[in-house]
Amino acid sequence: MPTSGQCAVARPRSSKTRGACTTQEVQMIARARSARRESRRWCDSVKRVLLVFTLVAAPVVASVVRAQEDAPDHAAVVLFTQWFEQVSNHGRWGADDERGTLNLITPERTREAAESVRAGVAISLSRELKPGADLNAIAPLEVEYTGAGGGGQASFFSDRTTIIYHGWAYSHLDALAHLASNGAFYNGFPESLAVQAGGSSRLGIENVGNGIVTRGVLIDVPWLKDVPYLEPSTPVTLEDLAAWEDRTGVRIQDGDVVLIRTGRGARETQFGAWSVQEGAAGPHPEIAGLLHARGVAVLGGDVNNEIYPSVIPGNGEPMHLLAIVSMGMPLFDNLGLEAVAREARERERWTFLFMAAPLPIQHATGSAVNPLAIF
Predict the structure, then answer these.
(1) Is 328 in contact with 287 (CB distance < 8 Å)?
(2) Best mean pLDDT range from 38-42, 45-49, 243-247
(3) Is-contact 49 64, C-beta < 8 A?
(4) Can you give the three-state secondary structure of the chain, one letter per residue?
(5) In this predicted model, which residue has the larger pLDDT, 258 or 3?
(6) Residue 7 — pLDDT band, cuts 50, 70, 90?
(7) Distance CA 58, CA 129 (A)
(8) Cβ partners under 8 Å of residue 246, min gap 6
């Protein structure tokens, strides 16, 4: 049996140094496993009831079956509410704070990350921006090219680009002004501060104007599970993160940018694009507790940092609510992680210098972005 400083999960193949979990984190994993097991038990009981009574007493037991079916949904909603309260950073850095978990990226963390560069190889973490229709875009990227030419001494050419970067197609960073819940943004700022005419007067992307420069950590879940990609709707759980730490010997720490690869790009290469809202792998909201406990600064992924369909009934984006509204954690959505995954595997190195500098548009809710991983 593992000691209190080790994760209570099975050792994956080719394990290196075990990732050390605290007793609290081991308990967190155990509670998450128990909650999923309890939900499955409820579902199994419903199936047994239906099997016995479908033909002989369906009208009589219909209300009982519905109650049993609703029980796991209710439990999930209650659990989400608990998570939202437990991971809250409201007031942690003062009543006027607009940076949230970016406060965890200290000058020391930035310096340490810069000193980790060995080869000087830079990898883009952005998906390719292609003008035209995209089934995962809220609206198509439009580029209008201008310039008359004429062969003169100086023939200038230009373009006008129109992009709604939020959604499921384009790589972007969500500012803390992107999402509110029950009338309030992160740190309790009222939703009324955001007006369509001028954007949000607080929590805008300009608060990230100095960029994000820290250690990046790639959690390549398909590599961990020895598959090319995760099937749609596969959750990335606390157990997966513990198993990844155990196999790589890397421990997630304060100030990190954590990037979770599900293999979206690999699946698109094999099958073509699909509507990720209809089914996509992503982080289970239970991991918010670990991200909070470890002091993670930013979470990113190759889809939208959500499981589709959602595992929380009536709540389509639970990770966005937990991260942006409760923790004050910006999110990188729709990153391109295939190239960095290949580089990390070849080098057997899962950490790197991470750099991203969003456009500091005043009062904006985010920015299209091309982050870099530098080995």
Answers:
(1) no
(2) 243-247
(3) yes
(4) CCCCCECCCCCCCCCCCCCECCHHHHHHHHHHHHHHHHHHHHHHHHHHHHHHHCCCCHHHHHHHHHHHHHHHHHHHHHHHHHHHHHCCCCCCCCCCCCCHHHHHCCHHHHHHHHHCCCCCCEEECECCCCCECCCCECCCEEEEEECCCCCCCCCCCEEEEECCCCECCCCEEECHHHCCECCECHHHCEHHHEECCCEECCCCHHHHCCCEEEEEEEEEHHHHHCCCCCCCCCEECHHHHHHHHHHHCCCCCCCCEEEEECCHHHHHHHHCCCCHHHCECEECHHHHHHHHHHCCCEEEECCCCCCECCCCCCCCCHHHHHHHHHHCCCEEECECCHHHHHHHHHHCCCEEEEEECCCCCCCCCEEECCCEEEC
(5) 258
(6) low
(7) 54
(8) 7, 9, 11, 12, 15, 18, 19
- Give the integer Cα–Cα distance in Å for 250 and 301: 18
Tokens at residue 346, please?
Answer: 């070849």
For 147-197, write each residue's pLDDT tens digit. 878 788 888 899 999 999 999 999 999 999 999 999 999 999 999 988 767
Map out the domains of the chain with their CATH numbers: 84-127+171-374 (3.50.30.50)
197-236: pLDDT as tens digits: 788 899 999 999 999 999 999 999 999 999 999 999 999 9
Say if residue 242 is exposed, middle or buried (CB neighbours under 10 Å; 0-12, 13-18, 19+): buried
Q: Write the Ramachandran bin of 146: left for phi over 0, alpha for psi from -120 to 50, otherwise beta.
A: beta
Mean pLDDT of 232-249: 98
d(Cα 288, Cα 272) in Å, to the nearest integer? 31
The Cα–Cα gap between 169 and 138 comes to 8
